[in-house]
Amino acid sequence: MINLSHVSKEYKLSGESFFALRDVSFEIKEKELLAILGPSGSGKSTVMHIIGLLDNPTEGTVKINGKDVSKYTDNELSLARNETIGFVFQQFNLINKLTILENILLPTIYTRHKLTFDPKTRAMELIAKFGLLGKERSFPNKISGGQQQRVAIARALIMNPKLVLADEPTGNLDTKTGNAILDLLEKLNKEDGVTVVIITHEPDVANRCKRKLYIRDGKLYTKSDYTV
Amino acid sequence: MNYILFIIKAAFEDFNRNKMKTFLTSLGITIGVSSVVLLIALGLGLKAYIQGQFDTFGTNNLYVIPGSLSGGFSGGPPTTQLFDDKDVSSLKRIPGIANTIPVYEKYMKVEGPVTTKTYQVTTSSEEIFSTLTIKIQYGTLYTKSDVAKGAKKIVLGPKAAEKLFGAASSAIGKNATINGSAYKVVGVFEAKGGGSFGGPSIDDAIYMPVTASLSFNPTKKYASIYLKVRDSSFITPVKKEATTVMSKRYKTDEFSVIEQTELIKTINSIFGVLNTVLIAIAAISLIVGGVGIMNIMYMSVVERIREIGIRRAIGATKKDILYQFMAEAVLLSGLGGLTGLLFSWIVILFLQTLFPAYIDAPTIAIAIGVSSAVGIIFGVAPAKKAADLSPMEAIRYE
């Protein structure tokens, strides 16, 4: 589904350059549940930004369904983010001045194609599915962290994306609420066939996934050669 | 369409959340638009007023006045008393002229039983009344024989009569003292209106036979000569002939023979230039208002960097972000413009009790158009800044 080949990302800060990623190659297969595990500053967020088409690699290629996205225009990248990828962030990243329902509906506003579903009906289905009924007119800062993350997941799913990218989805939640969120992501993968990539620094979270990739100092490791 | 409605709705919700900020930001545009609209309305009113004043003077008139009109009309009442009876009789001989009316005007202290006030006293023949379409309300107008005899009679405008004698109807038969001599009020004419804002109104006029003014115009000189032509087809030939007649005694730059329309045009062009300059000065406040909007929009972009990042992550294009911020700037500015328009409309309603100020459809279109244009011009740079943010950096912004 997504293929990264010899991807490097170089940043220049105050004239000095450093590599956030070095020669990273891997593939995300359709319908898989994948964890990318690494400590703070390892480059895992950079991987997520590149997979999520929020950033470009300095070197290497990123292919989505066989298409090289480096040649995509801003409009094409936005369209791909809108239709193919759903984001779930550690900070939830909901827009506080919009209601829960408006937050969930937001991706449908930016679509370029005619929707095959009624956005409001689908949003209400997701609200019901994630136990948020009665909260649709509330604002994000009036609900709990766990509820906010469920809203974020609902927003990520409204366009029926093939891939959900979750960056530290439990980072701001207590263990019980975090587990509930992970249950939800796992269920999405298992029951709805959505590809889920979880980026985390917590081995316990990563252990919930079938496949794990390890990242440290911008380099990717498989389990066998990764040492903490 | 859905998206446009969404950003308009979102912008208005934002304005609602930050009422004071919205009010203060759009205040600059409100002030700018209302200043411009009020000045346009005053200009339009002035034009209508001038036209109205000339309409009260009747039609098919030519004016022989001192000085040259080419190179600018000096404005104000002419001070040079140039012409005399010889000119009047030469002009009278021109075919096509119905009346030749010499006019001498002077501001004089007029003493009535109630009050003493300075008025413009117009001395002329009895023909001035028909030329200026003046109709009597009380008493009579002075006659040809009064002019021949030099009778010390005066005809007052209703406002002057009221001021000097308490009431227009009670002035008849009473005396007013002008320049030490007593003049008998024989008539008060019907009100003609005009003359707001301290400007001279024909209703404040005082007329007396030209022959009765020798005490203050001993040489019998005239400031101007009105020529009433038989009908409009005589205007051009009479104007030409009058110019030829006057050229025999005066240099071409010492007098002018002008048509009423020419006079209106000249006056309008002078006020037009003045009005344009004032509007241009008022328009500076629109620029200041625009800078205010730009400043707030830049602040808004910084405050909302993370929101921009979220929107970009879920599929908003650069253009979507650009349009969103542009729409906010234009709506903010347009809102200011509409408030300014509403405010000036209220002021104009009040002004209309004193002066024929009014706003027309083009003025409304200009007000809305200019305020929206200010929003576009001053909103584009902050909106572009928002649109050009890297989605990755924006979403990580703390």
Q: If you consult CATH, what is the topology of chain A? A: Rossmann fold
In the predicted model, the low-confidence regions of chain A spanning at least 5 consecutive residues are none
Relative strand content of chain A: 25-35%
CATH class placement of chain A: Alpha Beta
Derived from helix and strand composition plus strand pairing, the structural class of chain B reads alpha+beta
Strand order in the sheet with the most strands of chain A: 6-7-8-3-9-10
Estimate the strand proportion of chain B. 15-25%
How many whole angstroms does the radius of gyration of chain B measure?
A: 31 Å
Rg from Cα of chain A: 18 Å
Low-confidence stretches of chain B: 71-79
Mean pLDDT over the residues of chain B: 87
Largest chain-chain contact? A-B, 26 and 26 residues
Largest sheet of chain A: 6 strands, mixed
What is the end-to-end distance of chain B?
33 Å
Count of domain modules of chain B: 2
Folded structure, characterized:
The complex is a heterodimer of chains A (228) and B (398). Chain A has 228 residues and is of the alpha/beta class. Helix content of chain A is 32%, strand content 27%. Chain A has one domain: Rossmann fold, CATH 3.40.50.300. Chain A has helices spanning 44-51, 74-83, 100-109, 119-129, 145-157, 175-192, 203-206, and strands spanning 2-13, 16-28, 33-37, 59-64, 67-68, 85-88, 163-167, 195-200, 211-216, 219-221. In chain A, a hairpin with a 2-residue loop joins strand 1 (2-13) and strand 2 (16-28). The longest helix of chain A has 18 residues, at 175-192. Chain B is an alpha+beta fold and 398 residues long. In chain B, strands 2-3-8-5-7-6 form a six-stranded mixed barrel. Classes of the chains: A alpha/beta (228), B alpha+beta (398). At the A-B interface, helix 2 and helix 3 of A face helix 1, helix 9, helix 10 and helix 12 of B.
